[in-house]
């Protein structure tokens, strides 16, 4: 019994040392983004001043791994990653859809750069290849060398982010860091959120600023509020400087006045977009149709929980023409694309 006790203590000590070394390695190699970072714009030489009527399509592509046949363990399902052929097929379909959309700007979230969950495919390269007429900027928001969940089938390495594509070249392209999803040590395995800001000159000392955003999903609302506070300060500064602004993406919160539907297995705290955010005169613009489906089960129309999470925020001087959800029946992602058409200068549309 004494020897068994000693060996048990030794085994526990070795296990604790190995875990400490594992945490130490991840801590030393952890991605630590700076508050504001200039992001390169790759692609062809394009005009810098956009026309006065434009369209933006926003789509969270779910790293081509969360199509209609999938469920996901974080949402109460069992799946960790789709079959490799499924991921490749989804990515090819996403490439075709975006290439055929012909929007002036594309805001894309959850693009993988060599992640185990998407079989280490370089998805940004694939999207750029499909969109040769667009300039592109990529902002990293998830870089973990090893995600240990779920324990028996860990996600492993994840490297991903969001990207803006455009038929115009911005004069400024910047990544702004937001509050990360979690503190150390859990934060070692979670996202480091951000938004990507593009500036375009539209007049003397006046810019059109287009912002691609993806806020936290699995929190009690505290982290998301910190992220909203950071974004609000930036938006108000832009407004005070006389700029016009459009923000779009996956907000992971429900539009103001929208009544969400949540399954019993939900661990997402319901949060609605704040009224008069960031100030009076700004408007939330959503399609009125669901854009996201819950991943506790494979998609079944009429049974799967659906909500609105993908939409836009516009400053007072933006003239909204229309907004639409494009119904792809979640074939290639757990989100649906949403298109906004707007004008920044036409008095007739005011």
Structural write-up:
The structure is a single chain. The chain is an alpha+beta fold and 350 residues long. The protein has 2 domains: 1-30; 34-349, Endonuclease/exonuclease/phosphatase (Deoxyribonuclease I, Chain A, 4-Layer Sandwich), CATH 3.60.10. Helix content is 21%, strand content 29%. It has 4 helices and 15 strands. It has helices at residues 2-28, 84-101, 123-130, 222-240, and strands spanning 36-38, 53-60, 105-112, 135-147, 156-166, 172-177, 194-203, 206-214, 244-250, 283-285, 292-293, 306-307, 310-314, 319-325, 338-343. The strands form 3 sheets. Strands 1-6-7-8-9-13-10 form a 7-stranded mixed sheet, covered by helices on one side. The protein has a 6-stranded mixed sheet with strand order 4-5-3-2-15-14, with helices on one face. A hairpin with a 2-residue loop joins strand 7 and strand 8. Helix 2 packs parallel to helix 3 (123-130). The chain is globular and about 80 Å long. The relative contact order is 0.16. Mean pLDDT is 89; it is low at 346-350.
Can you give keywords for this protein?
15 strands, 350 residues, 7-stranded mixed β-sheet
Q: Quick recap of the structure?
A:
By secondary structure, the protein is of the alpha+beta class. The protein has four helices and 15 strands.
Shape: globular
What structural class is derived from the secondary structure elements? alpha+beta
Biggest sheet details: 7 strands, mixed
* Weakly predicted, low-confidence segments: 346-350
Strand order of the largest sheet: 1-6-7-8-9-13-10
Rg calculated over all Cα atoms? 21 Å
Give the helix level as a range of percent: 10-25%
Approximately how much beta-strand content do the residues carry?
25-35%
Total number of domains: 2
What does the average pLDDT come to? Answer: 89
Order of helices and strands: HEEHEHEEEEEHEEEEEEE
User: What is the CATH topology classification name of the largest domain?
Assistant: Deoxyribonuclease I, Chain A
Q: Write down how many β-strands occur, each being a DSSP E stretch of 2 or more residues.
A: 15
**Which architecture name of the largest domain does CATH use?**
4-Layer Sandwich
Distance between the termini: 84 Å
